[in-house]
Specification:
The protein contains 10 helices and 16 strands. Helix 2 packs across helix 3, helix 2 (about 25-40) crosses helix 10 (about 315-330) and helix 3 (about 120-135) runs parallel beside helix 4. The strands form 2 sheets. Strands 1, 2, 3, 4, 5, 6, 7 and 16 form an 8-stranded mixed sheet that branches. The longest helix is centred in the middle third of the chain and has 19 residues, at about 120-135. The protein has 2 domains: about 1-120 and about 315-340, 2-Layer Sandwich (ornithine cyclodeaminase, domain 1); about 130-310, Rossmann fold (3-Layer(aba) Sandwich). The chain is of the alpha/beta class.
């Protein structure tokens, strides 16, 4: 936001503006890692997401995320993101997740910026997967299995491939055409061999890191305990659970991004396990911020099976959005819009 004699102005940063900034996966992972540590130190104000489910024959819903990061800028940055989750958008040539982020001065309440948060949502999701894997996966992980080919899948794989010396990336999704196209995209960008598989079981069986980003319409036991190799890390974050009800019986540690967020709402990979009492605050190992700051241990041996469930924190959106805003201001990118 800038002030002048003719009013208050804020910066609108569009998707093409963000593309022009040339942010790297390393930039996004660094921003995510810093804000996860800040969360672990209690330097954020965080509210669990809320949902708006319009009367649209079950086509999708909106998530509203709110957060504040005290360590950004001179006296912190507050933000609110609204992101749609519309599974069948591919039928009309649109991403399933489209989002807007607004950033505010926490001392005055004055809006600072409006940003296309579609890429932010994709990138910060991949970055959170990568930060979790840095602390919870085996350092010598060689095989990555990824279920799902939606927008966030690309960031997951690219960021994990940059972090680990992988020998193989396995990908699958419900629609053969989507998984084949996704594999071709990855092969054009990465040197690691990419293998297309036909089922979730084939994708994660024996994988060192398994990521589940399915787009199910109802719960299904696609991931069972016998598929998880000793020493593996499982990262499930599908909206509807793809996990077997008894999966936690074979998992040594469960880590979440935020316990309050894990309990909020009606969606999420471990929602049935929370409802059944299989996952409680007592059985939870840690929040990731506790691991990043050293308050709780991460991986302690090469045999542990660890599950990291991240639902997506508003503070990551704020941190990545603030990074983009600073870069946009420095490059004078975006459109100045009069607020009042």
């Amino acid at each position: 936001m800038t002030t002048s004699g003719d009013g208050l102005w804020l910066r609108f940063v569009s998707g093409p503006d963000i593309d022009a900034l040339g942010l790297t996966p390393a930039d996004i992972v660094a921003a995510a890692s810093e804000v996860v540590a800040a969360h672990g130190r209690g330097e954020t104000v965080f509210e669990p997401r809320t949902h708006l489910e319009p009367d649209n024959d079950g086509r999708g819903h909106f998530n509203v995320l709110r957060g504040h990061v005290s360590t950004l800028g001179d006296h912190g940055v507050s933000g609110i993101k609204v992101v749609g989750d519309f599974v069948s958008n591919y039928e009309v040539g649109l991403p399933s997740e489209l989002a807007l982020l607004t950033l505010y001065d926490p001392w005055t309440g004055v809006p600072r910026a409006i940003l296309d948060a579609t890429l932010i949502t994709e990138a910060r999701t991949g970055a959170m997967t990568a930060v979790g894997a840095r602390h919870l996966a085996r350092p010598d992980a060689k095989v990555l299995g990824h279920i799902g080919a939606r927008g966030t899948a690309h960031s997951n794989i690219v960021m994990l491939d940059a972090m680990f010396d992988l020998d193989e990336i396995r990908v699958t999704s419900r629609r053969p055409e989507s998984r084949e196209a996704f594999a071709e995209q990855l092969r054009a960008e990465l040197s690691t061999p990419v293998v297309v598989t036909e089922s979730a079981a084939e994708t994660i069986d024996g994988a060192d890191i398994a990521v589940e980003a399915t787009r199910l319409r109802e719960p299904a036991s696609l991931i069972t305990g016998d598929l998880l190799a000793p020493g593996s890390l499982l990262v499930p974050y599908g909206t509807i659970s793809a996990l077997d009800p008894d999966l936690l019986d074979v998992v040594d540690k469960v880590v979440v991004d935020d316990w309050r967020e894990a309990q909020a709402g009606s969606f999420g990979a471990l929602r049935p396990h929370l409802r059944s009492g299989a996952l409680t605050r007592g059985t939870l190992h840690a929040e990731l911020g506790e691991v990043v700051t050293g308050a709780r241990p991460g991986r302690e041996n090469d045999q542990e099976r660890i599950l990291f469930w991240h639902r997506g924190l508003s503070i990551l959106d704020v941190a990545v959005g603030h990074l983009i805003l600073e870069r946009a201001e420095a490059a004078d990118l975006g459109t100045m819009v009069r607020f009042r």
